[in-house]
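Section handout 9: paired folding examples.
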Amino acid sequence: MVGNERVGNSAVLASLPWAVPGVFGLSLLGTIWWRGVALRHRIVAVPNERTLHAGAIPRGGGIIIASVWLVVLTYYFLDGSIALADYLALFVGGAAMAALGLVDDIINVRALAKLAAEIVVVAWGLYWIRGLPALALSGEPVDLGWIGTSLGVLALLWGISLYNFMDGIDGMAGAGAIFISATMGVFLGLSGQSMFSALFWLLACACAGFVWFNWPPARLFMGDAGSGFLGYIFGIAMFLTVREEPHLLWVWLITMGYFITDTTTTLLLRMLLVRRFYDTHRHHAYQSLARRTGNHRRVTIGVLLVKFLWLLPLAIAAYRAPDLGPWLFAIAVAPLIVFCAIQGTLHEV
């Protein structure tokens, strides 16, 4: 069960000074090793109608992010800092998503088979965390019961797909993961959830070791091994931490605001304007801008600036004034919806 076993553990935060460089170094060395393996075995991404790179680039590097972080998670579990149910949801589900993604990176799993496997993994995670927590939609938290469980399945599946869709240009998904992890690491630390604060700081370090090779021009891609893993972990961790502090829901959603907005806006507009909306495409705003400018670095840095200068202050405001969370989330995403629509699908169709 969740609770005091992972809250207020000052010893966990005290371990960060040695854990941070250790995790970064392990991720960096692991990424170097995996890049060599991927090149030798031709585990590469070739250009297609969805991608924006030239030439075959090794992929699947996200398996190192997952492996390193799951080792950290296991260390803290054996140390007694993480409850068994939390560990089973995060470790087994995270490992399964990373393995499924790696297989897809290597042999391209059929879409329906992959979706079926994702549903099983999501159901596993929700079982161990006892379903969707009570949500602070406005005022007091509301328990949605079995409807909430159904919504939880859909939310997790969408989160996994969402992160996959945002892994479309150099550095975008990796840098985004560092921002989300480090930002939530701070907020979770402030709210007393020391265990998850430490885990997210170390996830940021694991991602940083990978981003060293993924920063434009990328020498290695994350692949589904990383995007599926990150989407699942962020979703499960959000539910776990919101159970302890319901007001953190809006902090989470604002922090992930750009990824949520670009993906959701693109999907809805394509459903309205494109007959075969489910086909692969490059209609996301960040993809369209990268294609038109021919500069992945500029677009990735631009999106990071939006996160730091626009979303982060609003996330801080939502943390300090939880009753205003829904309104602050609406303020955060409203201009992004307009931007993503104009610069993405509406520009492309």
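Moving on to protein 2 of 2.
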Amino acid sequence: MTSMRHIFFLLFYLVGCAEVAPTDTSEDTDTDIPFEPLDGQGLLSGACGVLTEDNLSSSQAALFSNTLDFGTAFDEDDLTLGGQEVLDDGNLGGSSIWSEVFAFEILYRCERAQLIKTEGEITYQDPSGKKTDLLVTIESMSIGVSVTRAFAWPPEDPYTTEQAESLLTDKLADIPLSSANVSDEDRWSKQILHILAYTPDHAKTVQEVWETMDASVKGDTIVIVSATEGDDAFMY
């Protein structure tokens, strides 16, 4: 009888283990949680969490797009510390400071970028040569960020393929020049061309033109096109 009781308890134990196993497996699959943007000024949607170590170290170009909707009001108090630093430091001329601020904001909120230096802090071999706008780290890699805007006057007119091609050709040509000019102290491993687009249609035109461009023009640059919506007039 004692032997039968031992067999019974052994069978009971084995059945219990078999029932527990599927529960452990399902818990493993629950860890695959979508990458969400951090809170901040405006609602971010679209490509987020896409700048992995693999594509940051790749010799291939890539383009990602997202949208930043400011809604009905812009509040400077909602900027991140890095965004506020970009604003406070200013740039080296022109009216593009807000696009540089929000290029960083988007990279911080979506890619967890950390600000290393603003435009005036980056050092170069030739101070009169080509420069970039921001130096950040993403995935522990130093990344240069060149910022521009897809916008034309009058703003209500369609953004043409010719305008998009001119913008991309000029800005992509500057990327290797500033990369060659940066000092060893601030040398980055790759550059991002971050384009703030006046409308989603502007962004779509930029993407369509980029897809037709020769690989020799694109180089290894990562292009991020961020369409802005809502109360975004201050950006342009």
